[in-house]
Every structure is written in C-alpha cells, then in structure tokens.
C-alpha cells in the first residue's frame, strides 16, 4: 500500500481535502474506484475498522492532525467528512 | 477450544471455545456466492448468528437491537447474553455466549493493509512495533493481523468500535497477553529479519480472535485460525 503523501503545498479547501480523501480511499482498493465519491455514504466505501484507523494515520501524516476513529461516526457522507476535516485543518 | 465441527450450513465450521469459565460458541465460513455487497454479507452473518444461537441453545433468540446506528447489536430480551459479528470480504465469523461480553474479529492473515506504516504506528505498542520490525513479508503481516484481531476483539467486547462513540481504547497503549511471533508459525524456525519466512505461505489464510471480559472487565483472549 502506498504511504500517505506529504503535506499539500497549497492551502486546503473542502474540495482539495475531498479530492485527497477520495485518492486515499481509492488506494485502499476496497470498493470500485467509481464508487468513491463525495456523495457516497461512508458505510458504502469499504471503510472497516482497519481502514478507518489507516485513514486516521494518513491524515496525521499528511495534515499533522490527530484524528480519532470516532470522528467519522458523526458524518453520513464523504463530502461531510471533507468539510469537517477542512475546518479542522484551517483551525489547526 | 473444546470442540469444532464442520458444516451445519453449507461450508461453515462451528466451534466452542472455553475462555476462562465461559463457553463461547462460534461459526465461521464464506457467505454464499450471491452475497456480493457488504450488506448482503452482513445479512448472511446475522442469519448464521441466529442459527448458531438456536442450534447450540445459547439463549432464546428474539433478534438483535441497537441503541443507535453505531452501537453494538444486543440480543433482545437476553441481558446476560452477548454476540459479536465480524466479516472481511465474504468471510464471516460470528460468536455468542452467556455470562460475559464477547467480541470477535477476523482478518486475512496476509492482508496488504498491514503494509501501511501509518496503520502500524496507530495499532501497535512500542514493543509490538519492535517485534514487527524484525519480520518481513507475510510473516510480518500475520503477526500484525494477530495483534489487530486481538485488540479489535477486545474493543468489540467492550462495546466500542471504530465509528462508535465510547470508551474505545487506544491501540497504542493496549497491552495484551499475545503469543510470541514464533508461536504463530507451525514450522519450528522463528521468523527473523531477512526474506519472508518460508513457513508463512503454508499457514492458514485467516487470523481471528475471540475476547471476553472477565468479572473485573479484564480481557481474556482465544486465538483462532482458519
């Protein structure tokens, strides 16, 4: 599995954070790539326990944010996660 | 394990593990081929669980209920009973018992998910990271699968989960009584630094753990391989 990319050089936006999330989750290769969209329900992305924790680690590596796995339980779609994560990045 | 048998339902295996003084009944198998989605596999797992509970007379099955969308399902009308469901792809492990909280987890023993450095860092104690660093290839993956399934089974017994608010413990500080990596392989030689251990390829493809919490809420573990 590819390791998380280094911290993005440009300022993040909900769109760029969403694009990054889509890229990472497609790399996990648990569902077909076209199913990984911002509108997709989180429960349909193959994010079982291992990949939720992997994603937390990838977020930490890329954005320097410590995210607990329970963070994802607050949202229904990947787009909602992207918006909330971008807010965390902006306020960090 | 005190017993195991094959096939009450098309290719499944049943067993009963005595963990502490608690009998934990389990059923393992592959979901039927039409089960293509996670929801399909989940429905199959629930059906197997109901059959297991009835076949082994674990408790009176009246279905499961959740207190919330991310909460652990609990048996209806059986407060002293507990169940746990795990599936990875089409592979299912379900467990049920009375008199204790139970957790079950199963993973492919050589999953490339365990190649992720960020996952290893989040799931291992410093000692476990040191051990993993001495292993390579499938031997390393199997060791990490063992660590993962043990810890995940414990948090499931506690009623926590990756997306469930609650007292989920930090895997980096969760110290469990796990076997030495040399015990994970049937060959006499211990996996060591260098090329992937040759015995790893012949090992069972799935690692699993059952966990219960004792009267002091301390975890007791039972390793399964399939």
SSE order of chain A: HHH
Q: And the CATH topology of chain A?
A: Non-ribosomal Peptide Synthetase Peptidyl Carrier Protein, Chain A
The percent of residues in helical segments of chain B reads: 10-25%
List how many beta strands of chain A DSSP finds. Answer: 0
Please give the order of strands in the largest beta sheet of chain B. Answer: 1-2-3-7-6
Number of domains of chain A: 1
What is the general shape of chain A?
globular
Q: What is the second-level CATH architecture of chain A?
A: Orthogonal Bundle
* Percent of sequence in beta strands of chain B: 25-35%
Protein name (chain A): Acyl carrier protein
Organism (chain A): Herbiconiux daphne
Keywords (chain A): Phosphopantetheine, Phosphoprotein
InterPro entries (chain A): ACP-like_sf (IPR036736), PKS_PP-bd (IPR020806), PP-bd_ACP (IPR009081)
Can you tell me about this structure?
The complex is a heterodimer of chains A (92) and B (226). Chain A is mainly alpha-helical and 92 residues long. In chain A, 48% of the residues lie in helices and 0% in strands. Chain A has a single domain, classed as Non-ribosomal Peptide Synthetase Peptidyl Carrier Protein, Chain A. In chain A, helix 1 packs across helix 3. Chain A is globular. The termini of chain A are far apart. Chain B folds into 2 domains: 122 residues, no CATH class; 95 residues, no CATH class. Chain B starts with a strand and ends with a strand. Chain B is built from 4 helices and 10 strands; from the N terminus they run E-E-E-H-E-E-E-E-E-H-H-H-E-E. About 4% of the residues of chain B have low confidence. Chain B is globular, with a radius of gyration of 17 Å. Classes of the chains: A mainly alpha (92), B alpha+beta (226). Chains A and B meet through helix 2 of A and helix 2 of B.
Question: Notable features of this structure?
Answer:
heterodimer; A: 92 residues; Non-ribosomal Peptide Synthetase Peptidyl Carrier Protein, Chain A; globular; B: 226 residues; alpha+beta; 2 domains; five-stranded antiparallel β-sheet; three-stranded antiparallel β-sheet; 27% strand
């Amino acid at each position: 599995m590819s390791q998380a990319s280094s911290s993005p050089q440009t300022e993040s936006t909900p769109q760029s954070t969403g694009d990054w999330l889509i890229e990472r989750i497609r790399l996990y290769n648990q569902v077909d790539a076209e199913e990984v969209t911002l509108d997709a329900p989180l429960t349909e992305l193959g994010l079982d326990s291992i990949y939720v924790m992997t994603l937390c680690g990838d977020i930490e590596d890329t954005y320097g944010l410590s995210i607990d796995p329970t963070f994802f339980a607050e949202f229904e779609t990947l787009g909602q996660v992207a918006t909330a994560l971008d807010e965390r990045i902006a306020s960090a | 394990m005190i017993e195991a048998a094959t096939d009450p339902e098309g290719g499944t295996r049943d067993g009963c593990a005595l963990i502490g003084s608690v009998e934990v009944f389990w059923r393992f198998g592959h979901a039927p081929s039409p089960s293509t989605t996670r929801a399909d596999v989940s429905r199959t797992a629930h059906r197997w669980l109901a059959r297991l509970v009835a076949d082994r007379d674990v408790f009176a099955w009246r279905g499961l209920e959740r207190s919330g969308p991310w909460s652990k399902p609990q048996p209806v009308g059986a407060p002293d009973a507990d169940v746990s469901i795990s599936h990875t792809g089409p592979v299912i492990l379900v467990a049920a018992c009375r008199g204790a909280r139970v957790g079950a987890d199963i993973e492919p023993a050589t999953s490339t998910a365990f190649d992720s450095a960020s996952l290893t860092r989040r799931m291992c104690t410093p000692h476990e990271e040191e051990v993993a660093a001495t292993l390579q290839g499938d031997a390393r993956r199997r060791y990490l699968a063992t660590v993962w399934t043990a810890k995940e089974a414990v948090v499931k017994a506690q009623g926590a989960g990756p997306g469930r608010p609650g007292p989920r413990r930090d895997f980096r500080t969760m110290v469990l009584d796990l076997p030495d990596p040399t015990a994970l392989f049937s060959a006499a030689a211990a996996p060591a630094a260098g090329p992937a251990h040759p015995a790893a390829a012949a090992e069972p493809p799935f690692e699993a753990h059952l966990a219960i919490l004792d009267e002091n809420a301390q975890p007791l573990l039972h390793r399964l391989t399939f």
